[in-house]
Design brief:
two-stranded antiparallel ribbon; two-stranded parallel sheet; globular
Length: 90
């Protein structure tokens, strides 16, 4: 996904072991592009993708194109369908 500025070592995220992401940074630093890449990668691996975007609509089109769950507000978040997504199956 990138590299360490101090050592120039390549950095990546293991999608099998990391289930939740929060991406932060200054405007124009590639946050949305990174999230699109992660969405596509997880989708290609048939992973369960849920995008939560309360203060924007930048990822909605990508989520629709990939057919993944997109939560844009509290109403979407607290639906019976979204609860099924967050409760682990036993």
């Amino acid at each position: 996904m990138g590299y360490d500025l101090a050592t120039a070592a390549v950095e990546s995220i293991r999608l099998k072991q990391t289930y939740c992401y929060m991406v932060s940074g200054k405007k124009g630093t590639g946050k949305t592009n990174l999230l699109r890449i992660l969405m596509r990668a997880a989708s290609e691996k048939r992973g369960r993708v849920v995008v939560v975007e309360f203060n924007g609509v930048e990822l909605g089109g990508e989520a629709e194109k990939l057919g993944v769950k997109y939560i844009r507000d509290a109403e979407d978040y607290y639906t019976p369908e979204s609860v099924k997504l967050t409760v682990p199956a036993h």
